[in-house]
Amino acid sequence: xxxxxxxxxxxxxxxxxxxxxxxxxxxxxxxxxxxxxxxxxxxxxxxxxxxxxxxxxxxxxxxxxxxxxxxxxxxxxxxxxxxxxxxxxxxxxxxxxxxxxxxxxxxxxxxxxxxxxxxxxxxxxxxxxxxxxxxxxxxxxxxxxxxxxxxxxxxxxxxxxxxxxxxxxxxxxxxxxxxxxxxxxxxxxxxxxxxxxxxxxxxxxxxxxxxxxxxxxxxxxxxxxxxxxxxxxxxxxxxxxxxxxxxxxxxxxxxxxxxxxxxxxxxxxxxxxxxxxxxxxxxxxxxxxxxxxxxxxxxxxxxxxxxxxxxxxxxxxxxxxxxxxxxxxxxxxxxxxxxxxxxxxxxxxxxxxxxxxxxxxxxxxxxxxxxxxxxxxxxxxxxxxxxxxxxxxxxxxxxxxxxxxxxx
Length: 408
Hints:
alpha/beta; 14 helices; 15 strands; about 35% helix
């Protein structure tokens, strides 16, 4: 009887929603078996991730057999914009349990790249060092999420030597007051140090800035934006906080009356002005950031030396061999790419210094690029960003987007 199963939501015979009792969090993660890989297409799928545009560095590897592992659940921190889908209590698998999975993946499928999808991987330095010592003999490349406050040069060097090739950080803001409001428990100086250490160690890293915290003003937002503009060498994205259900900012939005209809909000997850900025300031900034991201305005422009179309295909798209020069280190290198989107620029990760730079797609893929597709993509994205200021669009965004795509 589904009524007796905890943690379910379903419709009964009368069509009414039924919420059963809350399911307790699984405390002992070692009691769980490793995921079933063999019979769900894993062997075929692990090689496709190389060109999924998630980790550009993977495209520089000659062979990729990719897997994802979760070594812990939840997070010991409670940032105001975050929610924890795997529970509020932080739990870790033992290293023995994690390495039983790594050993299986390595021996059975020859996995050589692993992404650890933990909300936070760097909680305990001693555990990180023990992990690095154990994974090094596998000769596996790996990536994980870290806190900037945990970054120490010697520690990160040890991790890089063990196979770490990509580190992701939650940056969120470059203003200390906003970081405090977010309950990040980090400082701007720690962010700068972490990125600098990664750069010195030639460790590729990325992070994100999310504008719109309840304490955000136009001045604090501009502080983050100015830093972002002046540091194109780092792969830092720029966006806005969304009021995701169960996050503290969601409760804040409810209390302030910014969410009128919970179901419409969940269906669309629109951008809401929860900040101290006026609606005009906030939604104008949304439009600007959308334009900057669309055009990669503050990404450094690389040099395209030559391009040649190949006979190889990926998802019916022809590969090109591009010879490019990095604007940061001057390294001339060759990349095999295909036209993956209608964006005006192609983003490339330097194979020597791991800085990100852009190349015009019109030049890179001369016979496949479409000005019409790029213009259409730009009109849709910018129109969506502009009309976000109207509550009607925020409530029915999913419907209006479909109409826009049919009209343009």
